[in-house]
Amino acid sequence: MKDFAPTRRFHLTPSQRFVVLTLLPAALYLLAFQLTPLLYAAYISVHEFSPWAPSHNFVGIQNYVQFLLDPNARTALFNSTLYIIAVVPCSFVLGFALALLLNRDFPGKMAIRALLLLPLVISPIVAGTAWAFIFNDQYGFANYVLRVVKLPTFVWLADPVLAFWVIILVGIWITTPFFFIVLFAGLQSLPVAPYEAAMIDGASARQTLRYVTIPLLSPVIALSVILMTLEALRVYDTVYLLTYGGPGRATEVLSILAYKESFQFYHMGYGASISNVTAIIGIAVGVLFLRVLRRQTGRE
Amino acid sequence: MQRLNKTTTILFWFLLIGAVLVVVFPVAWVTLTAFRSAAESFSPAPPYTFTLDNLRAILLSEDYPVYISNSLIVAGVSTLVSLVIGAVTGYTLARFRSVGTRTIFGALFIFRAIPPIATLIPLYLIVHAMGLYDTLVGILIPFIAAHICFASWIMRGFFEEIPAELEEAAMIDGCSQWGAFLRVSLPNSLPGLTAAGCLMFLADWNQFLFPVILTGRRATRLLTVGIAQSVQEHGVEWHLMTASAVVAMVPAFLIIVAVQRYLVRGLTLGGVKE
After folding, report:
1. What is the pTM of this model?
2. CB B1 to CB A296 under 8 A?
């Protein structure tokens, strides 16, 4: 532990100078391009804001009231919530299952792990393109298979309900590899002793999982779930590519709604209030994350 | 690891291959279509004629080479700048523990938790006001902002694993704090720099939200934006869409083959470790 509280006003010790100098670039950059934009967004959201107008009417909380009353906002809030509560748990279960499955030695392990990471490293735009192609109603693979086995086909991405389930499916496809790799790494770093003890006590595989693996992994589980919740909250690219919030406005999520209101309809004040609500949700989840971290480091 | 009997072994491979097929299928299907003739791309049914025409059409087109080089430039510059800032910040956060550094660390995470949409409107206006709208420099601004938080976080994790005794020995021998950082810790953190660098490069290469808002002309368009907008500009041409998607996947393929180990370390460290 090195202390760097200033002793005299303008005289810093070399190590204090080092700390200030190394933290300064990041601090200044974030002040200019992260904190200032956030404050600016707060300003925009309480005005009737048109980007090129010389002055803006102050409207107080009107944009936030509009958010509460707007049926499109209700749809977007519902969709974002549905997306998070469908994608995060499903991806977690699938990723955990994959991690348990791969947690042994077998030929080709590295290659298979690399393949399972693919959805995580390619662009969501590419992923969206791939799935839009598969679920294209005329030329897509999904309807082709249905036609071959003589089942009715669907207009996947033009149906308000089906389209959102396709979006969720793509979300699960992208998120599962993250849970897989993080939990896999967690499993590999677990101590052997508790497992030996469980074996001596004659625990079944299920009991070992329930009473040894899951408790040992619980910090990793908690943190990865929170991180992926944040990721799910910001979903944008795949929705943009698969449906652009359509048909109509049925599959809009919060970020798509904010985007459309700001840059398509130029209601920037309203758009800013939507994105601020999204940010507040994100910050709440982030604070929760830091709490979990603190508790963990406190325990160690 | 317990020994598996025959039934479990068969079940194991069955599940594993099934999972791999589901995960890989969309990527494989796009790749397969990219190498089929234009006429065939409208039906999943055979025949499958191998052709390089689509890829050639993309790579020799007027637009795509510009998009590709834009993406490379922006991702390269943003990664380098963020690595430098992230390394010094991460180092100090790892080595100097106090209320101040702890607060900064917390702030970095809160910034990371805020969805990009929250700064999209103000950054659009700020970039405009700076006269950087529709320039590659304008796109760099939000990229680097996002990366500083991520890179500092991840590099802090890597620096914590380098024993401080190494530096203390060097400092007793007369090395300054900067010397200890530059000559001892930084060379030892090369795996961390590689991991963070690869992840940031990929993230930039894959970025879409900010570039689509901050640019308008073709000359400043990134590859992801080009792919997404080709539908609006040319209608649906699946053979070209899939070929451009294959081009966009190349860096991901290369990185996953070359540095999988570092990538995995970075992902897990950036993800969950404090």
Report:
1. 0.90
2. no
